[in-house]
């Protein structure tokens, strides 16, 4: 708590700024997303794409991620095939060919046969495909007839010859051969789709974009407060330099929150990433959401969670020394580790018009918990004008989510009971929750890595971002720094739908290094800080 100074002035309600009452409107809520939007990308400085919730396709088209997917040479002579995705619709099995030249070649082969083209002509139309399929050689009609019915009588053979024109011109086997070739092509297409949708990098790519799509879906067109996404593809290999670049680039316009779509394990490398992410979030004063992978708890997958007795107790083990050290640092309040991947879409089954390919997906596709939690913050902004009501299940939940198959369908990768939900929260890990059989996902609390309130960090991020923007773009409206800025802060808090603090005060000190140090004090609304205590922080104007 900061003691009042002789220059400190409290904000009296409805005091006008010189020249008229100041107008404050909440800005666009910004979310920085670091994710594998292009897993094959390997650039020293990855691109930064800024999109609103209605223009996700434009970002995907601009980035146009391309993957080289290894496949059996019996399916493609090259041993791999390139796949480029330029829209969300491009992830559908029936649309993949638009960005996959080899799939286009397969389709060209089927079109050739459907148009009555001779099988022998496939070598000209689609040479790579022709190398992996069995194209029957043209045969004489007499050979066809005898081969087609070895047990038929000589009369039947003769009649067959007569019926087919006695071996006249043309290729009488073509219809039968074409039918067999189409079956071959469909089987190859099906196996290629299975290889693509099972490929690790393709799954990471689609899961990242499906997560962004889930987030964008929470902000309908015309929402009072809009949400803007800043998308940064995580490069292959070391992701630490990305934080260095962004910390410098975003210092003057930090995001309101950030997410890192990189499930972490309890390894030295991942703990180094976690530490850098913490420093990054603390430097920008932006809460950062990061998912925890199953191997963080020493299990191969979440199906083995039952073997972990008490999560806070496990994290006391010596193997978690680095985690405990980080959790005790001041910056831990800016990290929100989370758990509970959300089903990104239903499993693929044969689509209408593609039944002959028989493609069925084996494993569900999960978007990380970081996307689920960030989507809840976006939904809170769209519904209430601020992200701090993210855990109010009655008004803020992810709805109409796809469900898993089986006797207990769920939209979550990790369905948790009440005891497990409490375990994770005690450990400083925020779990997502769902009622079995229901298509809704909600946040089971709002805690940070150090066990503190995430809502407070979200609010503080909003407030400091507002002050940075005021200092950069509206300094001319602030004549009396203490009185006018106090009024502006109060109006901003009201614009979020919160009551104006009754004890808000701004104390300015002498200029130092080109700026004016400020002490700002206020009592936060119970929604933000349930203790009701007065909060003070410094800011350089």
**How many structurally independent domains?**
3
Output the structural class: alpha/beta
Q: Which value, in Å, is the CA radius of gyration?
A: 31 Å
Number of strands: 16
If helices are DSSP runs of H or I spanning 4 or more residues, what is the number of helices?
16
The overall average pLDDT, rounded, is 86
Approximate shape? elongated
Strand content: 5-15%
Please report the distance between the alpha carbons of the first and last residues: 20 Å
> Within the largest sheet, what's the order of strands?
3-6-2-7-8-9-12-13
**Which spans have pLDDT < 50 for at least 5 consecutive residues?**
1-20, 140-176
Query: Main beta sheet, described?
Result: 8 strands, mixed
Describe, in plain words, how this protein is organized in 3D.
With 541 residues, this protein is of the alpha/beta class. The protein has helices at residues 56-63, 101-114, 122-125, 127-130, 141-148, 154-163, 174-198, 200-217, 240-249, 268-284, 311-314, 321-327, 369-384, 418-426, 454-473, 481-495; strands spanning 9-10, 29-35, 49-52, 66-70, 80-84, 227-233, 257-260, 288-291, 335-339, 342-343, 366-367, 430-433, 442-443, 505-508, 517-523, 534-540. The chain folds into three domains: 1-16 and 501-541, no CATH class; 29-53 and 218-455, no CATH class; 101-198, no CATH class. It is 35% helix and 13% strand. The chain has an eight-stranded mixed beta sheet, sandwiched between helices. Strands 1-14-15-16 form a four-stranded antiparallel beta sheet, covered by helices on one side. Strands 4-5 form a two-stranded antiparallel sheet.
